[in-house]
Amino acid sequence: MMNSILNPTVWVGSFEWREPVTTLTDFLVALVCWFAYFSFGKIVSKHVSFKWFKNYFLIFAIGMTSAAWLGHGLQAYVPDYAKVVGWICGATGLMFLQLGSFKIIENRVGLTVKIWLPKWFVFQWILAVLLMIFMLQYGIENAFKVTQINSSVALILMVLPMHLFASKKLNLTGSKIVASALFYSIIPGIVYSNQLSINHWFNYHDISHLLMAVFMTIMYFGLRRVIESQK
Question: Distances in Å between the alpha carbon of 151 and those of 65, 95, 144, 160, 188?
């Protein structure tokens, strides 16, 4: 495992641009999400999941744009706690994804699950956001761990089982694609957690961002296929 290494700062005249490659690779993920959001806007669907999936991409686009610039590129000009904007957007987007995914299968689950699972999604979101704010407020190290844990719980323990269920019970090709994307998402997680880097100009942040851009692309195709099959 390599030590944490950051991109060297680049000066453009008097402008200080920190972690330039990390900024651009993070923003690449945002661009994929912006594309997905506007592409979803062209779909005509009355299915209840549609608004959740569309807004999942919107809030992630906002969050990744914020993460790229407030969390990396403009660090010299914004307070450290500004990065929480991207984190909160990420947690919110995951809640939207959970709720949208649940709407696909809610008619196939029992009453208890139908009542309590959406409540859990909201509780999980509130808990994650409060922990993020608390840890940043009091300068507790590894506040980003909350984001990582929340993402793992949301994607692997919640969204993945729902789409595996939809694949089996509803035979949704889109859910099969989403499930494949979620299995794939383990790879950027491993890269980030183990800080697998090549050098200062292409570190584990940059590699995981590129892998995340691929992940969001697959998610776009999968969720779009799900919605188109639910018209």
Answer: 18, 10, 11, 12, 12
Which helix (H) or strand (E) segment holds residue 11: the answer is strand 10-12
Q: What is the pLDDT of residues 8-59, one digit of tens each?
A: 999 999 999 999 999 999 999 999 999 999 999 999 899 999 999 999 999 9
Q: Specify whether the CB–CB gap between 204 and 197 falls below 8 A.
A: yes
Quick check: helix, strand or coil at residue 202? strand
Which residue, among 151, 182, 184, 183, has the nearest Cα to 67 in the 3D structure? 151
- pLDDT of 2 reads 40
Compute the distance between CA of residue 117 and CA of residue 191 in angstroms, rounded to an integer.
Answer: 31
3-state secondary structure of 12: strand
DSSP 139: T
Residue 192: other Cβ atoms inside 10 A: 18
Helices assigned H by DSSP within 138-203:
144-152, 160-169, 173-184, 186-193
CA dist list (Å): 3 to 6, 84, 196: 10, 24, 9
Q: Tell me the pLDDT tens digit for each residue of 208-227.
A: 999 999 999 999 999 999 99
